[in-house]
Amino acid sequence: MTISRRSVLAGGSALAFAPRANAQSSEPIKPRPALRIAVAEIPPTLEPARELSNVGTRVTYSMFDTLIRRDFLGAPDGGGAGLKPHLAVSWTRNGPDELVLKLRDDVLFHNGDRLTAEDVIYTFMSPRMFGEKPLMPDARSYFATLASVDSPAPLTVRFRTKVPDVLLEQRLASWCSWIISKRAYEERGFDGFSREPVGTGPYKYRSHQRDQKIVLDAFDQYWMGRPNAESVEFRQVPELASRVAALQAGDVDMITNIPPDQVSVLKKSPGIDVRNVVLANVHVLTFDERGPQMGDKRVRQALALAIDRKLLVDTLWDGSAVVPNGHNYPEYGQMFLEGRSLRYDPDEAGRLLRAAGYRGEEIVYRTMPNYYTNALRAAQVLVEMWKAVGINARLQVVENFSQMRAEGAQIGNNSNSTRLPDPIGALWISWGPGSEFQKSGAFRSVEAFNAAGRALEAETDPAKRKALFKAMLDAWEDEAPGTVLYQPAEFYALKRNVAWRPYTFYFMDLRNDNLAFD
């Protein structure tokens, strides 16, 4: 049976019978290819709200479904913000603090259980994301406004929030909203489920060899239809040259994390195509207020002002990355703040250093070499920019985030994703009270920032929301617990027979409406 885009959007009864129609057909089922993807790193576990990094969501996005689906392909750049039915066939607002959703009746988990309202309630209200000591407090921060989830009728779930939440529908289509199996979670426990999870997505867990590969099998009972690939293998290949060689030799079908200077080489390879997207993500520097010399915000401001971001984009990214208007993006729509920019002012940086009494004490920038594309090359250029304004900067290469943030941390790096097309889904989630930066004390000058952010969470008037966002962004830029570098471009190289489009997130969507083989 052919499943059209219209039938998916409608959530109609035709979908409910797709698996049975395939099973009853007398036509032989065509063999499907196995999809092999070489990545720089694979996640250590597969609990979808535990592995919220870029490398984690790349894998788990095709293992789990959300109630509402964000239509990334609804925009030419792969960053559409429209919403459409997914596990929920419809939803209704009963006021600013209540949302009621009707669930599909034909959805199976990978263990054969049928999706019920209890699974949805457990996903959000169980100890994994709720209570005094949730198993994943970082995940809970995505739903800080949530008060309760219950089921007023069969196949119906009702979400209530503590305050009016204009973004609840977007939250349910985004990070930490992937629905899990209650029975599997209770049977396996947090660690067991993290190793062998059970979702409703098109691909299900087969095996996981830490630091080597993750293999998923097609879930042929998937409610959207039989997946187009027989299996998917995410193979960890940290070295770029090895990933490129594997693709050119035909050992893999796709590779990720390609720096721009390799694109022209790959485009000349026979049978290989290169696809790219500017991410809804920014590479950022983090300035730890607890570190030596970092307690004075004038030093942190000087570090930000000394950066020529356009030079970084032109030299390291061949112009393919984008310097945004601060933590402020056009996809915010009416919330976008016009007229802002990231300043490059080395003279002002020098003045601030003198005013702060800085006398050449060493300031160390710690970075991992391969986690972020171009991270090491950017770090080497940044150190020279800081030296040019009188900062005694030194680069230290570390192996992981724990080492980066260990005792004495001064400068590190990170990335912040625009998880919802609104400031609440980017700056607030990344730097608010639930973030690692505030909880660790690295960002401690938070009074004005938190006051504006908490008010923004509960505000519904568009003009007032925009004013609160300005206040929040002003506070963040003034205290300078970090600074934005650029929105990176992500490049993928793949065999030309693989029809697949990247999204502005690292989500690697392998559903049939975004994956086919010529």
Q: Nutshell version of this structure?
A:
30% of the residues lie in helices and 21% in strands. The protein is α+β, with helices and mostly antiparallel strands and 518 residues long.
Task: Characterize the structure shown.
With 518 residues, the chain is α+β, with helices and mostly antiparallel strands. It has four domains: 29 residues, no CATH class; 126 residues, Periplasmic binding protein-like II (D-Maltodextrin-Binding Protein, domain 2); 132 residues, Dipeptide-binding Protein, domain 1 (Alpha-Beta Complex); 207 residues, Dipeptide-binding Protein, Domain 3 (Dipeptide-binding Protein, domain 3, Roll), CATH 3.10.105. Helix 11 packs antiparallel against helix 13 and helix 18 runs antiparallel to helix 19. The N terminus is likely disordered.
CATH names the topology of the largest domain as Dipeptide-binding Protein, domain 3
| Helical fraction | 25-40%
Average per-residue pLDDT, rounded, comes to: 92
The number of strands is 20
The domain tally reads 4
- How are the strands of the largest sheet arranged? 8-9-10-1-11-18-12
User: What is the gyration radius calculated from CA atoms?
Assistant: 23 Å
pLDDT < 50 stretches: 1-25
Structural class: alpha+beta
Main sheet record? 7 strands, mixed
